[in-house]
Specification:
This protein is an all-alpha fold and 126 residues long. Helices cover 85% and strands 0% of the residues. α1 packs antiparallel against α2 and α2 runs antiparallel to α3. The mean pLDDT is 87.
């Protein structure tokens, strides 16, 4: 046996981890569905006006960003669960960090634009 032999994660461990990730994803999906249903009921109870409709647009954007980011996290967890060795783990994490930083910048710009629109529309009405 070579001393420099690379460590590899056992297939059984990767399969178990992937199964747990999928269970967590399903549970989180149920939670988010319930939360969205509650938010929908709450927004429906709000008085219907221009500000409310603009706030709803901001809420929908924030929810969309949260879903995108959560999906990316679960995709990361699935990839990590299937990593064969430490080199795979490091490569996956590095790629995820680069991609998510770009995503966060884009989301922050869009969210800022949405908030500016709401603020400006509120000031014009005042």
């Amino acid at each position: 046996m070579s001393v420099n032999q690379a460590f590899e994660f056992p297939q059984e461990l990767r399969e178990l981890t992937e199964k747990n990730v999928e269970q967590a994803r399903a549970t989180y999906g149920q939670f988010m569905d319930a939360m969205m249903q509650g938010a929908g009921i709450w927004m429906a109870a709000m008085p219907s006006n221009d500000l409310t409709s603009r706030c709803k647009i901001v809420q929908e954007g924030a929810t969309r960003f949260a879903k995108q980011n959560t999906d990316a996290c679960f995709a990361l967890a699935s990839e990590l669960a299937n990593a064969k060795d430490i080199q795979d783990v490091l490569s996956i994490q590095s790629r995820y960090a680069r991609t998510q930083m770009q995503t966060y910048v884009s989301q922050a710009q869009e969210f800022g634009r949405l908030m500016t629109e709401v603020t400006q529309s509120t000031q014009v009405k005042s």
